[in-house]
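Example for tutorial group B:
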């Protein structure tokens, strides 16, 4: 008989914690890889060697990714507004029951 949630629960909670960082980063990396590949193919078609095209496009993609990933932005985590509870101190000089 197995007890507890095990490592699956740990990995699930870690993924949920880091998901807001991982998903947009993965999308940016995929987008840059696609742009770099298409740019390299067009460079090769226009006469560059594969090595020259790959070097040029990877450098550009790396610079662009670094700018995107390290710029400060985003909206952060939204927090629920808490209602302020105003507590009144009892008035010791004013009594309704006299």
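The residue assignment follows.
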């Amino acid at each position: 008989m197995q007890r507890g949630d095990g490592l699956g629960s740990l990995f699930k909670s870690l993924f949920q914690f880091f998901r807001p960082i991982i998903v947009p980063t993965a999308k940016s990396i995929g987008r840059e890889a696609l742009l770099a590949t298409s740019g390299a193919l067009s460079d090769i078609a226009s006469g560059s060697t594969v090595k020259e095209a790959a070097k040029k496009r990877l450098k550009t993609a790396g610079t662009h990714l670094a700018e995107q990933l390290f710029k400060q932005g985003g909206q952060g985590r939204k927090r629920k507004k808490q209602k302020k509870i105003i507590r009144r101190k009892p008035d010791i000089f004013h009594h309704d029951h006299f």
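The mean pLDDT is 82. Compare this with the pattern of hydrophobic and polar residues in the output above.
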